[in-house]
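Long-time lurker. I teach an intro course on protein structure, and each term I like to show students one example going from raw sequence to a predicted 3D structure in token notation. This year I'd like something fresh instead of my usual example. Would anyone be willing to generate the tokens for the chain below so I can use it in lecture? Attribution to the forum is fine with me.
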Amino acid sequence: MEQVRLMEVLMNATLASVVDNLLNLTATRDTAEGGGRAHTWVQIGANTLDSLNTKNDPLLAFVDRVPTWKKFFVEPIPQLYDKLKESVKRWPNSHAVQLAISPNASVAETVAAMYCLEEGFQEQRLGTDLPYWANQLCSFDPTHAMRHFPGKPVRAVNVTAVSVPEMLSRLGLQAVDVLLIDTEGFDAQVVRQIPFDRIRPSLVLWEHKHLHESRHATEEYMRAQCYAVFQVDHENTAGLALPLFGG
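-- Reply from a regular --
Happy to contribute to a lecture. Here you go:
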């Protein structure tokens, strides 16, 4: 019955109301079960999570609601990861993880190049004319950042890339409750690597902005995994999925 009510709320809900209802449902179940199990939050493509780069992150407002959850924020770019390590200290049970998710799911680990705007690593006070989100454009696609800012120089950065199952293994995770994905056009590949036979996140949120022709195929794939799929907004946050059964 609780799941039915939650699904009714989803039909005309904002992301904030969806997450609020989900966390309330989780807390209710935990109380009924006498304390509940440990919960986990995983964010892939976290960037720095500093005051500038949280402006377009729709779920960070809820991190304070889950102080006992284990939280893993995954960011492969060394300069961004260094800032991320400092940012996550404001939340208990939070960890920064320096990894990328490889587009190639058949390889457990590889070293791969990601391409970032050179000026995206500069502080704005040094004179760059790029917006605050310029350092969020790092991608395996060498043309991705250039399409946003033609003529701007791009830097290749070598990163350690692993498959989603390999990442879960390294983090020692047997379950994930909230899974957030923002990988600048490679979200579809990441979604398809989730081992749904072993983990059933209650919430999966991915960016659809750069998926283009693979957007609808990704939504259909999630429905085939018995998830209900909802468009959260038309630009920054892509799709929202909640399990139709269980959770």
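Some talking points for your students: The chain has a mean pLDDT of 82. The domain at 39-243 is CATH 3.40.50 (Rossmann fold).
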